[in-house]
């Protein structure tokens, strides 16, 4: 790829050609440059380009991928996303397999193990993944979380929970001596307690209540990876 320097004459025909090569629109290039779309339209027609815009366009012409052009954006939690050419994003998140449950409970440190998840947009939040242990959330339906599945989850602050919780949502609950996955059956703000329930109707997975103060962390499950795919 030919490198372009600040002291050369900018060939306006290269702008559209390179833009098509990187698969970005005039709107996207204009947004990256801090301009309106019509500025890009004029530049691609061969109209005069101001010095500051020329400098940015030369940088643009020297990039080989969208990732190089945009860099890796981060969300409000400092989690770094890698933009893909198709418009999706890859995010590396902490992953806790069952064999590391005891370490997490001892330290409440999610550790260094990571997995990559594809998102269609930047979803601001503290994400983590957990391997499912046991059959509490398995009722043999397509909505089950089975032993060995991976639950992709987003941390929620206890104070942000409300009585309007969707009863279909799954939650990863970290308490002092265990990591559980359940649905929330009810949240009693007056008593400061939450009732959890399993999907599995077996008596060994009966409903139980926890005082909010006993919950160290809680994560809302946003998607799953079945054990047949991971």
UniProtKB/TrEMBL annotation:
<dbReference type="InterPro" id="IPR036286">
    <property type="entry name" value="LexA/Signal_pep-like_sf"/>
</dbReference>
<protein>
    <recommendedName>
        <fullName>HTH cro/C1-type domain-containing protein</fullName>
    </recommendedName>
</protein>
<dbReference type="InterPro" id="IPR010982">
    <property type="entry name" value="Lambda_DNA-bd_dom_sf"/>
</dbReference>
<dbReference type="GO" id="GO:0003677">
    <property type="term" value="F:DNA binding"/>
</dbReference>
<feature type="domain" description="HTH cro/C1-type">
    <location>
        <begin position="15"/>
        <end position="69"/>
    </location>
</feature>
<dbReference type="InterPro" id="IPR001387">
    <property type="entry name" value="Cro/C1-type_HTH"/>
</dbReference>
């Amino acid at each position: 790829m030919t490198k372009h320097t600040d002291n050369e004459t900018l060939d306006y025909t290269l702008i559209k050609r390179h833009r098509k090569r990187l698969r970005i629109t005039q709107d996207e290039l204009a947004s990256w440059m801090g301009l309106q779309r019509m500025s890009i339209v004029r530049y691609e027609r061969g109209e005069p380009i101001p010095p500051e815009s020329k400098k940015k366009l030369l940088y643009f012409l020297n990039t080989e991928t969208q990732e190089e052009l945009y860099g890796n954006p981060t969300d409000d939690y400092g989690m770094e996303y890698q933009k893909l050419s198709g418009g999706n994003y890859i995010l590396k998140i902490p992953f806790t397999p069952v064999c590391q449950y005891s370490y997490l409970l001892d330290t409440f440190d999610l550790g260094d193990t990571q997995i990559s998840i594809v998102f269609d947009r930047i979803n601001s939040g503290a994400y983590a993944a957990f391997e499912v242990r046991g059959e509490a959330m398995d009722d043999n339906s397509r909505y089950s979380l089975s032993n060995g599945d991976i639950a992709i989850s987003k941390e929620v602050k206890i104070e942000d929970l409300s009585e309007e919780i969707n009863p279909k949502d799954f939650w990863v609950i970290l308490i002092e001596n265990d990591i559980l996955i359940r649905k929330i059956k009810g949240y009693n703000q007056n008593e400061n307690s939450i009732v959890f329930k399993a999907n599995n109707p077996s008596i060994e997975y009966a409903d139980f209540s926890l005082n909010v103060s006993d919950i160290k962390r809680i994560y809302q499950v946003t998607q799953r990876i079945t054990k047949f795919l991971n």
